[in-house]
Amino acid sequence: MVEINFLTASDRACWESLARSDAYFEVERGDDDYERAWRRLLDDERTRGVAARLDGRMVGIAHYLFHASIWYAGRCYLADLYVDAEVRRRGIATAVLEWVARDAEEQGFPGLYWNTLEDAPARALYDKVGRFHDGLVLYTYRRAANRPSAVRR
Description:
With 153 residues, the protein is an alpha+beta fold. The protein has one domain: Gcn5-related N-acetyltransferase (GNAT) (Aminopeptidase), CATH 3.40.630.30. The protein has helices spanning 12-21, 31-43, 92-106, 123-129; strands at 2-6, 47-54, 57-67, 75-83, 111-113. Strand 4, helix 3 and strand 5 (111-113) form a beta-alpha-beta unit. The N and C termini lie far apart (57 Å). GO terms for molecular function: N-acetyltransferase activity. This is Acetyltransferase (GNAT) family protein. Keywords: Acyltransferase, Transferase. It comes from Nonomuraea wenchangensis. Residues 2-153 form the N-acetyltransferase domain.
């Protein structure tokens, strides 16, 4: 049976091992990034981290944060969801998503959303539990291309 609960200080080593294994987006992270993330997960009331355990062993993690919305009730952004490759396809990710959705709703942030790469293997799960927004395009701001000297205020 899968047990899901909030991360605690004693989870640090297991959490970091799983977090470092989550390389799907091929984002390089330094030790400082892991330390900062860990501090936020434990200390920031808007940011949460949960662990999924199978027979007492941590096999999955999720990170999410609550934020206001201009037009709607509060929102919850699922930043990371990772399950150890050895135990995938056993319903662990689904259980974590359901747990996060329930927690978000209980906290007054019912709009749960996330993003993923187009070819992500987890899309089969996401297509079952979520709604795909066809045509939605995500942009990220390119600071280097928009240097302050080129922008007038």
